[in-house]
Amino acid sequence: MYDRALQALFVMALEPEFEAIFEENSYGSRPGRNAIDAMKQIQLCYQQAEKFVLKADIEECFNKINHDKLLEILGHKGKIRKQIEAWLKSGNIFEGVFKTSKIGIPQGGVISLLLSNIALDGLEKVLGDWAENQKLLRPNGKPIDKKSAKRKAVHFIRYVDDFVIITESCGNRGMSKIS
């Protein structure tokens, strides 16, 4: 009980700091945002023109988050860092066997969803930059001359480890190549 209360205290302290900088189109496990908001944003983006849509899930997302990278993003030192590191490395019991963890976020912790949002923040920029560098194609597959093409719109909507990319054109390698 003490540990869950301490995690809740950490969430109350850290959440405002990160909410101020989180990407706009992230909706999962955030105050004042929910799945309905994400669906409305998807619908709004989709209605604007003919689109290509990619729906993806980050496989084993919680289990593969790098502790060192997450702690670096958090940027806190001292007791705060040590406590978060202890929660991350706390491990779990699977099929009756206790294992400590070197990667991943323990699921079910009060602080777990905030930590996953912190780890995934920036994904929209990375995927947007990738999409901007792709060769523009018309819906029929023929290339669009970049000089005459307007900046292509790429919309990214994330809900925890699920996301949707909506764009007016697709890259020459196809959005399915994102891994």
TrEMBL record:
This is Reverse transcriptase domain-containing protein. Pfam families: RVT_1. InterPro entries: DNA/RNA_pol_sf (IPR043502), GrpII_Intron_Splice-Mob/Def (IPR051083), RT_dom (IPR000477). It comes from Halamphora calidilacuna. Keywords: Mitochondrion. The keyword Magnesium does not apply. Residues 1-179 form the Reverse transcriptase domain. It comes from the Eukaryota. The gene is AI1.
